[in-house]
Design goal:
The protein has one helix at residues 25-32; strands at residues 5-7, 37-41, 47-48, 63-67, 71-80, 94-101, 106-111, 124-131, 137-143. It has 146 residues and is mainly beta. The protein has one domain. Strand 2 (37-41) and strand 3 form a beta hairpin. It is globular and about 45 Å long.
Length: 146
């Protein structure tokens, strides 16, 4: 699923920005284009997320990138009312969630696009991307169909 990448202009204190590594560069390049990638092991066929150099199921290094549908369900969540730093003070309350993608992997992320009290376990969600810098867009999830 390709999504338009939403811009978030930085104001005030700076938020943490992911720094791509050799294991994650392809993931962040795809996210910057509005595509969500996961890894799949060629040896055992299992998907995994977050990106790493070996399979968490069989320890093979034979991994490939797979485009994810960007659809899933909220597995669990918490509403954050206290900002971890001044950079996030304008975001509270916000939803920190574990989303289970249709492909079977789980991602720690934020649910956006609805009030925190509307988020429920098993709620269908779809990926959206928030631009943090010219090179980094962060996948987040909104209620499906919004």
């Amino acid at each position: 699923m390709t999504e338009a990448v939403k811009s978030a202009a930085p104001t005030g204190p700076r938020k943490n920005v992911p720094e791509p590594t050799s294991d994650t560069a392809a993931y962040w390049e795809a996210a910057n284009r509005g595509e969500l990638l996961i890894q799949r092991c060629r040896a055992c066929g299992q998907p995994q997320f977050f990106p790493r150099s070996i399979c968490i199921h069989c320890w093979s290094g034979d991994l490939e990138w797979q485009r994810a549908s960007g659809k899933g369900r909220v597995y669990c969540f918490s509403v954050i009312h206290r900002a971890p730093s001044k950079a996030y003070a304008g975001d509270v309350p916000y939803v920190l969630a574990l989303v289970e993608l249709d492909e079977g992997v789980r991602m720690m992320t934020n649910v956006v696009g609805c009030p925190p009290d509307e988020v429920t376990v098993e709620m269908p969600v779809e990926v959206v991307f928030e631009r943090l810098t010219d090179e980094i867009a962060l996948p987040k999830f909104r209620p499906a169909g919004r």
